[in-house]
From TrEMBL:
SUPFAM superfamilies given in the database record: WD40 repeat-like
Swiss-Prot/TrEMBL GO biological process terms: rRNA processing
Biased composition (Low complexity): 85-94
Acidic residues biased stretches: 71-84
Family membership: Belongs to the WD repeat UTP18 family.
Record InterPro entries: Utp18 (IPR045161), WD40/YVTN_repeat-like_dom_sf (IPR015943), WD40_repeat_dom_sf (IPR036322), WD40_rpt (IPR001680)
Region (Disordered), start-end ranges: 1-27, 64-113
Keyword set, alphabetical order: Nucleus, Repeat, rRNA processing, WD repeat
Family annotation (Gene3D superfamilies): YVTN repeat-like/Quinoprotein amine dehydrogenase (2.130.10.10)
Major subcellular site: nucleus
Protein name from the UniProt record: WD40-repeat-containing domain
GO CC terms in record: Pwp2p-containing subcomplex of 90S preribosome; small-subunit processome
Pfam families tied to this protein: WD40
Organism: Pseudocohnilembus persalinus (Ciliate)
């Protein structure tokens, strides 16, 4: 570096000297011409004796001028050199200062590190061979990097991933970002979506509180507004069979006969800068398994799936693994397919059955191990667990309802539904609703003293005209949704416990298609509808936007 500076200085000095010589020669020539013209007459007019003196004076005058010019040139060159020297010194001081700051910064980092391996500088690592290391490359053809560089890139990668996780927290908090939000959405990769999903699953949004503080749902008008629909390119290619919300109410899953399970994130009004209020964050293809039932279980980021097979699949979202859940009893009891399963409210039990079969298998909700089985005297249409998980109600093909005690593992009571061809049963907090093929929904009351069901229906709802395929209660037990997948927009909301059917929705603007699945979020703010085209529409129930109205007890 010093040799280059010296060569540069000598070149500048030589160039300056050449310019000075040219300048002096021109000045000397011009001066000689002026003096010659000025003194020509005087010199010619004098005698020969004074001519020699005049010439001598002339020569002295010229020499004096040349000497002054040379002194000025040397002075300018010295100033130029001093100026360059001063600039070089300033640059050198600045560089030394920066180097010192970098050294201090590195020393501080090293001081904070728990351990530093000096041998990292001596090893080389090939980052082109292993798939998980290729993400550290800066160019596609990069192969070998040093151990020290490898360590730096790892830190940078995981720091960026941490930033990504902060970015994903818009699922719960209102973050401020610069740039186009839609562009950020499109740039989200699989790893970022996975980090988002893991972040959401770790949230614990408890909404339990004293019902004495709650403003109850009005029974005349339901304040419901469409929140958003799933983008066409992110929907299913077949009929949606299942919609289920996670307990934090920020994500929900859908399952369909296209062998896909999709997970979506809800962006509420706090994140209104996003164009898409529902974002697909994970798609899971289950080869050979058209999905009939899919549920979040254990609050551990697991999904249990059943379909047209004699086994279950358990999807671990955090480990990104799929495990098969099977037993020889599945093969013995379910001759054709496993079909659907029902999860108890507390997720303590899992009930497996297939329609027209005679067996119900009860599994442990935590371990998914077989506990016991229930044998019925007639084919099974549908079943559901009681709100407190003490009983399971099994609906038979003749309309008989068998009430089994899960603690004693024996039959507790039997009653007959008044409708003909009953096909769907759902339990509320103290009600049992049974839907029929004619569209009638009978609601029975469970006696609080002896836990038995009253003989006659408490309410008969006749607002549907085709077979009832969906009945669902929201988690505050204030709304019962009933629907039929055989007629477009065939959905009604029933106020509980007045049993008043809300008349303001659906209206002429409603377009949810043929509702094949209905589900409420745990905080009651959202209700989702799946249809025959694989599309999901999400609606907001404004009454529950007030957090004090979201309680479950």
């Amino acid at each position: 570096m010093s040799q280059q500076k010296e060569n540069k200085k000598q070149g500048q000095k030589k160039h300056r000297s050449n310019l000075d010589n040219i300048f002096v020669n021109k000045k000397q020539k011009k001066l000689e011409e002026e003096l010659e013209k000025e003194n020509l007459e005087e010199i010619l007019g004098e005698n020969s004796d004074s001519e020699e003196l005049k010439l001598q004076q002339y020569q002295n005058k010229v020499n004096k001028i040349l000497q002054n010019q040379e002194e000025n040139s040397e002075s300018e060159e010295e100033n130029y050199e001093n100026e360059n020297s001063e600039n070089s010194q300033n640059q050198e001081n600045q560089q030394n200062k920066e180097n010192k700051e970098n050294q201090e910064k590195q020393a501080e980092i090293a001081k904070n590190e728990a351990w530093v391996d000096e041998h990292d500088k001596e090893i080389d690592i090939d980052i082109s061979q292993v798939a998980r290391l290729r993400k550290l490359r800066k160019t596609m053809d990069e192969k070998i990097i040093s151990g020290e560089e490898y360590q730096k890139r790892l830190k940078q990668f995981y720091n960026e991933k941490l930033v990504s996780s902060s970015f994903y927290s818009w699922a719960f908090k209102d973050q401020q970002y610069n740039g186009d939000s839609d562009l950020e959405d499109e740039d989200m990769g699989d790893e970022q979506k996975q980090a988002l999903l893991e972040n959401i699953l770790k949230q614990d949004n408890s909404i339990l509180q004293d019902r004495s503080e709650v403003e109850y749902l009005p029974q005349e008008i339901l304040d419901i507004q469409k929140f958003s629909g799933v983008k066409i390119q992110e929907q299913h290619d077949a009929v949606i069979q299942e919609i289920d919300f996670h307990q934090n109410s920020q994500i929900f899953l859908t399952g369909a006969l296209d062998k896909m399970v999709k997970i979506y994130n809800i962006r509420d009004s706090a994140q209104s800068q996003y164009k898409d209020k529902i974002k697909l964050i994970k798609s899971i293809y289950l080869e050979g398994l058209p999905v009939e039932t899919a549920k979040f279980i254990n609050n551990k980021g697991e999904i249990l799936v059943s379909g047209l097979k004699k086994h279950l699949l358990c999807i671990d979202l955090q480990k990104d693994k799929i495990e098969k859940v099977s037993s020889h009893l599945f093969t013995q009891r379910f001759t054709q397919k496993l079909g659907k399963f029902v999860l108890s409210k507390s997720q303590k039990y899992i009930a497996l059955f297939n329609k027209s079969g005679y067996f119900v298998m009860i599994l442990d909700g935590q371990t998914k191990q077989f506990l016991f089985e229930i044998k019925t005297t007639e084919g099974i249409r549908h079943l559901d667990f009681a709100y407190d998980d003490k009983f399971i109600f099994v609906l038979g093909v003749t309309g008989s309802v068998f009430q089994y005690d899960l603690n004693k593992r024996s039959i507790f009571d039997v009653f007959q539904d008044e409708s003909v061809n009953s096909g769907f049963i759902k339990c509320g907090k103290s009600q049992v609703a049974i839907g029929s093929q004619s569209g009638i929904v009978n609601v029975y009351q469970q006696n609080s003293f002896n836990d038995k069901i009253s003989g006659n229906p408490l309410k008969e709802i006749q607002n549907l005209t085709t077979e009832v395929s969906e009945i669902n209660f929201n988690y505050s037990n204030e709304i019962m949704a009933i629907g039929s997948k055989w007629k477009k927009n065939s959905v009604r909301f029933v106020h509980m416990p007045s049993y008043n059917v809300f008349q303001n929705w659906p209206n002429f603007k409603t377009n949810i298609g043929f509702p094949s699945a209905i589900s409420f979020s745990y905080d009651n703010r959202f209700v989702a509808f799946g249809n025959e085209k694989g599309h999901v529409n999400l609606y907001n129930l404004a009454h529950y936007n007030n957090k004090s109205n979201q309680s479950l007890i």
